[in-house]
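Give me structure tokens for this 307-residue protein.
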Amino acid sequence: MNSSEITTIVNGSLIDAVSVRDRGLQYGDGFFTTMLVAGDQLLNWPGHWRRVQQAESRLQFPAMDELELFTQVKQAIAVFNYTKSTIESNKVVKIIFTRGVGGVGYQIPEKPLISTILQVALAPIQIEREAETNLPMFAQPQAIEIGLCETLCGIQPQLAGLKHLNRLENVLARSEIAHKGLPEGIMLNAYQQAIGGTQSNLFLIKGHRLITPQLTDSGVEGTTRYQLSQLAGSLDLVWQEANLLITDLMQADELFLANAVRGIMPVNLFNQKRYPTIKTFEIHQAWSTWQRENAVSLSLETERAAL
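Here you go.
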């Protein structure tokens, strides 16, 4: 996707550049989140706001205001709709936070001027919407074949779970899996634990357990992952976080991946093993229903009522 197809707003200005001295560029000093918008409905805002709060706390960023950030997102989408003439389209919104310019070397500035970068682009997936309510209707996803990446996830407990700007491991793994002609791949860490996909969280179904990798040493806690932990009980599944090996994946009843944009991605083939997708499709339906019921309308005049 070229830059002409993306609307970028940096600190409230419609520009497509940051300072070469920005700490996000210099040191990867920041974090980001990527959310899905179906028409005028922002999906899973609570999950994304939770991610922002966790990252700002653990990375020692100043506390942000939810209403102010939501308003910035809404304005960025409005600019995109106006300039691209695509009001009814499905969009992806990426919010990048950096510690701005300042500090001596790695040292954090005493009073950092946080840079907020919003990017809006057309979504890579199609989502139909209900005529009367304009709420999204999610089609049943296609099952995919996935592979195993040679690129490893780093082990860093202080940063594990965060979607910080140091994503070079994912870049290399994504390139590797693309060369294999596959849509996704499983990444391990140096302990040979299965951590997740190159851009998604990993889930196993084993009996009545919904199991996902523990992310205390490596990986990213996705916004969809968190909400699935809240939905598991309604599906008669026991949520479990565990250190998983390849042997655990091979012994699973079902296997799937998930992220904020692609949603639930059923896996039908991994490491020469075929998996059914019956329970995974039930999880997809529950996740779709939750997203519909908790979507935030961007057309509201009073943002506070939406939060």
